[in-house]
Specification:
Elements: E1 2-9, H1 13-24, E2 29-32, E3 47-51, H2 52-60, H3 64-67, E4 72-74, E5 76-81, E6 91-96, E7 106-110, H4 111-123, E8 128-131, E9 136-141, E10 146-150, E11 155-163, H5 170-174, E12 179-195, E13 202-207, E14 212-221, E15 224-234, H6 235-243, H7 246-256, E16 264-266, E17 271-280, E18 284-285, E19 288-290, H8 305-325, H9 333-361, H10 366-381, H11 383-393
Helix pairs in contact: 1-4, 1-8, 2-8, 8-9, 10-11
Length: about 400
């Protein structure tokens, strides 16, 4: 029998961020993940855009100073509507980080760098026990504790169990929490490119049909400006693009970006991810809280996914800090209900909003594309709408 304050299932970026954040408040943490301890050098150059609220959580976790130097600042979010009959920009809206309170939107960081920094931090914390190659095989929540069985045969009793074990969360299933999932017949092709023109720390999202094509700034690669690509397109076309050789794919993305960056050169392996959205019916059960993709899955629009996860973590951390200060139970039903009241309406609203944005980005009929163009024009040119878009965009 192992006893701890918090058991976290899932050792991805969200799970490790939760462990570091909760440990910073003095809680004893056990975190388990099915992956082996040796993550290797790997070739994954995919990135995550950390927005300002998420950065604040990582600062409190004591890990942001290590992550920041590996990324590139996001100063401007540029949205380009190119949905007319010609492949040319019709409307370009630049949302400048100077219009926010902190002066920038966030930082784009490679997933590998974030993971390595988080693992290094957790290794230094005496109140964190990281168990690799380990899964939760059973869970029961009681009035006094959450009891989980592990794949190694151990039993863990914790005041709180946090499910950060992904969209197919076992803990969510053990707790009997139902979820709703829907697909888009759309996939995201993810890879890295270099280009001649500097990105000037501008994240560029181009809308035609099928979904947005987004280039997000990265640090230079081999002395050339570099960007990560998330290309959302119908599933059949995504597979066709995936099967192209590097030279053909480079020519295709240069054409679809309308040479805005000059010639683009594929500079990494690529991956294809089917697009889905997903929400659960509840975020809690006895002694259990869902966070990250166990709690919500959205298409990669506006860098919302992981930043929503960090917001889950920060909300839970704040509630537990208040309970600890009062000498109260950090896994009590009243605390978990407060977490759900705070997060579930926001989760449903944000998943719904991103769903609408994604469907709008997929418009093919001209009348609908023109409607999307009119909406972007209004947001860009009407002050109150512009301010609201910036506020929503940074995750507030």
């Amino acid at each position: 029998m192992i006893e701890t304050d918090i058991l976290i299932a899932g050792g991805g970026i969200a799970g490790m961020s939760a462990a570091a954040r909760f440990a910073a408040d003095g809680h004893r943490i056990m975190i388990v993940d099915p992956a082996p301890a040796d993550i290797g050098e790997g070739t994954d150059l995919r990135t995550t855009a950390f927005l300002q609220p998420g950065i604040e959580t990582l600062k409190k976790a004591g890990v942001w100073d290590a992550i920041k130097p590996t990324g590139a600042e996001l100063r401007v979010m540029r949205i380009v509507d190119a949905g007319g009959t010609e492949m040319t920009p019709r409307e370009t809206a630049d949302f400048d980080g100077a219009e926010t309170t902190q002066g920038f939107f966030g930082w784009n960081v490679s997933n590998k760098a974030a993971r390595v920094s988080l693992m290094a931090k957790l290794e230094t914390l005496p109140n964190v026990d990281f168990r690799f190659s380990t899964t939760v095989t059973g869970f029961t929540g009681t009035a006094r504790y959450g009891e989980a069985t592990l794949s190694g045969g151990e039993t863990v009793r914790a005041k709180l169990v946090v499910a950060a074990d992904g969209r197919n969360s076992s803990l969510r299933e053990f707790a009997g929490i139902k979820h709703r999932r829907w697909a888009y017949d759309q996939s995201a092709l993810v890879f890295v490119v270099t280009h001649d023109k500097p990105h000037d720390n501008i994240s560029t999202e181009i809308h035609r049909t099928g979904g947005p094509l987004t280039l997000v700034p990265m640090p230079d690669l081999d002395g050339k400006p570099c960007s990560s690509v998330v290309w959302m397109t119908p599933a059949d076309r995504a597979q066709q693009l995936y099967n192209m050789d590097d030279a053909t794919l480079s020519a295709e993305i240069t054409r679809d970006t309308m040479s805005m960056f000059g010639p683009l050169t594929v500079a990494s392996p690529r991956a294809v991810w089917p697009m889905i959205s997903q929400v659960p019916s509840r975020l809690i059960s006895a002694r259990l809280a869902l966070v990250a993709e166990a709690a919500h899955v959205v298409p990669p629009i506006g860098a919302q996914g992981l930043n929503m996860s960090l917001h889950d973590i920060e909300t839970l951390a704040d509630l537990m800090a208040q309970a600890k200060l009062k000498g109260e139970d950090i896994g009590a039903t009243t605390l978990l209900k407060s977490y759900e009241r705070k997060q579930l309406p926001k989760t449903l609203a944000r998943v719904g909003g991103i769903d609408l944005l994604n469907r709008a980005s997929m418009f093919e009929p001209r009348t609908l594309r023109d409607l999307r163009y009119a909406g972007l024009t209004a947001i860009n040119r009407i002050g109150p709408l512009r301010k609201l878009a910036i506020k929503v965009g940074v995750g507030k």
